[in-house]
């Protein structure tokens, strides 16, 4: 008799691996159990019908159907953990294999029941890395909408007026990082998307920190990095696209930065092939930036342009998914989807980043983006 079960548990609206298995973004605690290929979803009683209709598990149950000897707790999460234990006991399970996301509450109850708990570092990772055709279609749709809003944002910046102080204005209002992010949020909301992780609209000097979300007014002649990574609320898959825009004439320094970043991205794109190492993609990109005379400066902000980060990351139900396109990045899989986003950053001249979403193929990559790369969007 097989006495081992696979368990995922938590909140499906926050745990992408759990959501992927039951396909309903529940805001209440839930669990998914696999025993010899037979899957069970344990959810609140009022959610059972929705989960059944999704049709992604063999059986749907609720905590009330698996009461503990002394009764279930009034706390929903505790009750779910107690019910998981009772469900596993009824199946004579002695060993439970779980992933990196299991809440300690569930682990504690399993340990109190004297069940062996084993960790599988690839569970919830390897099965999400290679995307199905349906998942790639969902990502392509998310990216197309991201680009649609991106173009609106870039043209709003490029076509703004500059006041006497050099600040950009539209209808008399100064454009700031903050109000441009609000503008983007409304555009996405109208398209059924949400900016659950915010956005980056940043210029000098804050952009020297490549993940600074941006603050304050936007100015003519200075590059503005616009990085949008919204979620399609109908599929829960994410877009992620970055472009850099300059209102007016870009300086020679910024033009040189931009040319180097585009060349670095092209080098990375060529290496994004199944079987290659993710580290090779990063090394190809970084080598081009270094050849153009830019230094590596990870963890230390610089006045002059420098290289601050790796070349990209996996993407899917989460904006950032394994694996990284960076040193130590392992072998890429066919159908794996990545962002490629080289960049250069400094306090004085500002930053330049360009980012697309690509699918690793057997012999070449497929770019899901269509938007041009230029600095001038007027």
UniProtKB/TrEMBL annotation:
Residues 138-360 form the Peptidase M24 domain. GO terms for biological process: proteolysis. One of its GO terms (molecular function) is metallopeptidase activity. It is an enzyme of class 3 (hydrolase). Its EC number is 3.4.11.9. The lineage of its organism: Bacteria, Pseudomonadati, Planctomycetota, Planctomycetia, Pirellulales. It comes from Novipirellula aureliae. Belongs to the peptidase M24B family. This is Xaa-Pro aminopeptidase 1. It holds the Pfam family Peptidase_M24. InterPro entries: Creatinase/aminopeptidase-like (IPR036005), Pept_M24 (IPR000994), Peptidase_M24B (IPR050659), Peptidase_M24B_aminopep-P_CS (IPR001131). The keyword Plastid does not apply. Keywords: Aminopeptidase, Hydrolase, Metal-binding, Metalloprotease, Protease.
